[in-house]
Design the sequence.
């Protein structure tokens, strides 16, 4: 008998998983609270853009989707760091050709994914269906149709919660269990501001992620295919309201950005303040009945650009566990958490650290020199010296393994520093002693 | 007009706060899900015992309750550490007379507190009333009477959540807000086991906290007034089920305890496994409408013996804030969180560390020597050298201030160690050089 999996949430992770499950012969129903994004016009579905990197690419390539997606992406070959005194030095993302990121509109990614998933045998999407309750013992979901309010109960062999950081599936699955849960809101929030194309041509270098670093305010901008860029202004949450005149604030703080943002005042007034949450949680599954993927089990701050990539990679790991235990969903789910959670925990840590890097250290000459040394070593010792950023963004080395290796490399650098210092000191002492007393 | 405060939860913190609020002229209604503990016989209200220390004593003394409570307590002058090879060296709790803890049955404490609170003008208790919902904007609670299920809605000027680690007031107060929440279950659980009196006399030294330390299993026992002791066995959660024959396990692991526990097998089979949770959370209040006290805003592991003492101390701090802002509950609540949370966060950390100490380090000769040195310094430098344990348990120095001072003392000890080492080394070198070559 064909087993049936119910997925709650038709974001990138839920939709990609639907494709993986269909390939394994499951019947898959995906329930999503929002309307079908393919039916919304551009204005209704104001879209953010995402940086697709090696892990996401690998996961999407695995279901044969990258050929369709490549034309929808814009390469980002490095960071353009906008300095307060003017000038925007370019910092390449990698030491090697191909170590680049790819900017893609979330809308383009998700509509491509849904089209692909819907074409698989056994996969059905049900938009505008809100989860009302979960019966974790029965793997059943109670749903309400938006608008009509019509109630619906569906039972499957298992339920997958792919419903984001504030997952209702998680809340109901974990109810009354011994739950470890770490949730933190960043003191900073964000607001989207666009850098439109100027008569069709880009106002600034296109194939880069633009960063205006700063301890009290920070902008990150991704390029789009239409030569515009989508900028995100990060500020301490309470600052957004305090700024009465955003143009004045920008003139003082980001003088070279203001010329790129003709709609600044209007967008600042109209766009909402977004909040950033980090979540680590356990358990990720309930017996063979319910499991979580993506932000539902590990939400991270966006500062490493890995949130969506990690969510897509979850599908690869879960799919592999289902392959290893084809007749035992409970073992597959347990193995999935065991294999995956240590790595997403590390990503949480790295994403927090990268906020500090973007905010405080990106302008530091020491930091820039260290980055250059790392890339130089990577070029001199190809495959043997790999900077942490490269491992996280341009490889599929599991996150915790990448961090462990980076720490070993750091230790070598430190020893090298100590050794160099010792050799230098010995040389100095030798030369001093030549003419001095000997004992 | 008299302002009315609704307290949810009639544990030690909620009940003590009722007394404080009555003194400030509030009308106070306390709602508690369970029956009135004064109406239960001993068997129904199986009671744990608690270690009352300086903070709790101060808070209770503040409402004039200690005179009634003293006769219900048993002094604990130190720890008796049961070693694997037999013998139970005694480690005093403090360097000075009076630096001791007081064991009290939770039932004795709470019934005394409720009697006292109920005698205050304006205080009413409503037992067997379960919180169904909270309207945080209106400071209103929706309740159901246990048994009859009768529904009731009560509106006050503010609601206080004193309903424990899994506070429903907290869940409803924080719903949809930017909530930071850290919740962790310890991998170890516990089971209560009694050391009954032997024909009326104590089977072991009474005026001590008894500890059987161990990396894989741990017992802590508090003395009672009837010459019995209440023991708590701590084990990794999954171990409880694995142990088929508890007597065999005790013979191998705690040979000197088995003779003290004639009902071991029966109690092991009948008593449930308890779980230990640690919670840090924020916010602690919603405008001037809702605030949290006790475990509802900071649950800690029991290994520093401070959980209830900290909850009672919350009342002192909140009461002081209400005194400072008598006409502005919102400011009082905000000030209470600002003043108090840094300290309970530190207690959370210390309680986690003390688990490691009890489990791994208590038997170490180095640790015992360090403890002795600390107490010796405290005797030599009265008031100027205060060990961390003393500050936490025998003073009302705020927790974070105590930790900061202990760290300064540690730094001095380390420097003293380095200095002593350097002097010794210099002496050795001098003595060596006397007969050796000079340069």
Sequence:
């Amino acid at each position: 008998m064909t087993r049936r999996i119910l997925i709650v949430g038709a974001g990138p992770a839920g939709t990609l998983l639907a494709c993986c499950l269909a390939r394994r012969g499951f019947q898959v129903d995906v329930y999503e609270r929002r309307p079908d994004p393919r039916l919304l016009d551009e204005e209704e579905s104001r879209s953010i853009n995402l940086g697709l990197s090696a892990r996401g690419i690998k996961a999407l390539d695995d279901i044969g989707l990258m050929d369709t997606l490549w034309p929808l992406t814009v390469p980002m070959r490095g960071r353009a760091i906008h300095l307060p005194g003017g000038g925007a030095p370019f910092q390449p993302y990698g030491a090697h050709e191909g170590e680049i990121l790819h900017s893609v509109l979330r809308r383009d990614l998700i509509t491509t994914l849904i089209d692909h998933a819907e074409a698989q045998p056994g996969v059905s999407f049900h938009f505008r269906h809100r989860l009302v309750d979960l019966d974790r013992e029965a793997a059943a979901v109670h749903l309400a149709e938006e608008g009509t309010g019509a109630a619906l109960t569906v039972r499957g062999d298992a339920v997958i919660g792919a419903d984001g950081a504030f997952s209702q599936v998680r809340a109901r699955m974990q109810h009354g269990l011994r739950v470890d849960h770490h949730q933190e809101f960043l003191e900073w929030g964000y607001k989207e501001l666009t850098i439109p194309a100027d008569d069709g041509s880009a106002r600034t270098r296109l194939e880069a992620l633009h960063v205006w670093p700063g301890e009290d305010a920070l902008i990150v901008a991704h390029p789009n295919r239409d030569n515009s860029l989508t900028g995100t202004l990060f500020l301490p949450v309470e600052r957004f309201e305090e700024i009465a005149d955003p143009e004045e604030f920008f003139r003082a703080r980001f003088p070279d950005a203001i010329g790129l943002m003709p709609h600044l005042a209007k967008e600042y007034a109209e766009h909402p303040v977004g909040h950033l949450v980090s979540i680590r949680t356990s358990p990720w599954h309930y017996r063979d009945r319910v499991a979580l993927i993506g932000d539902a089990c590990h939400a991270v701050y966006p500062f490493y650009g890995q949130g969506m990539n990690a969510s897509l990679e979850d599908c690869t790991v879960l799919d592999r566990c289902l392959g290893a235990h084809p007749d035992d969903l409970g073992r597959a789910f347990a193995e999935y958490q065991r294999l995956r959670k240590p790595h997403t925990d590390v990503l949480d840590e790295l994403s927090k650290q990268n906020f500090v890097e973007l905010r405080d250290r990106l302008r530091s000459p020491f930091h820039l020199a260290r980055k250059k040394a790392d890339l130089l070593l990577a070029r001199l010792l190809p495959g043997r010296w790999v900077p942490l950023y490269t491992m996280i963004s341009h490889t599929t080395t599991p996150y915790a393994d990448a961090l462990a290796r980076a720490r070993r490399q750091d230790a070598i650098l430190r020893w090298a520093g100590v050794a160099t210092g010792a050799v230098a000191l010995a040389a100095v002492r030798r030369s001093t002693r030549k003419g001095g007393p000997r004992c």
